[in-house]
Amino acid sequence: MSAKPKSAQPKGSEPKPVDRPRDPQAPEKPSAVEPAEGVVLSPAEQRRRRSRNIAIALTLAALVILFYVMTLARLGSNVFNRPL
């Protein structure tokens, strides 16, 4: 028979996090209070992004309308001949 190794922790318990010394070369983590800097867009870039988002939204709305009209066209008069 093979012996199973016994685990140091009881079944179902969470392991404790290990405290490791912080690397002095590592960058600081942003705190929850301070907003992260991230990418700062110029006003022109913000306008381009907004107009691009509007164009994507209009294209998506046009596709939804197109699919709806195509569905109605395929079903024809059978749309109203269904049990309620």
Provide key terms for this protein.
84 residues, mainly alpha
Task: Please provide a brief summary of the model.
The protein has 84 residues and is mainly alpha-helical. Helix content is 39%, strand content 0%.
Topology:
Blueprint: H1 43-75
What is the arithmetic mean of pLDDT? 79
* Helix-strand string: H
Strand content: under 5%
Number of helices: 1
Uncertain segments: none
Number of strands: 0
Structural class: mainly alpha
- Fraction of helical residues: 25-40%
The radius of gyration computed from the alpha-carbon positions, rounded to a whole number of angstroms, is 30 Å
Most strands sheet:
none
Report what the structure shows.
The protein is mostly helical. It has a domain at 43-76. It has one helix spanning 43-75.
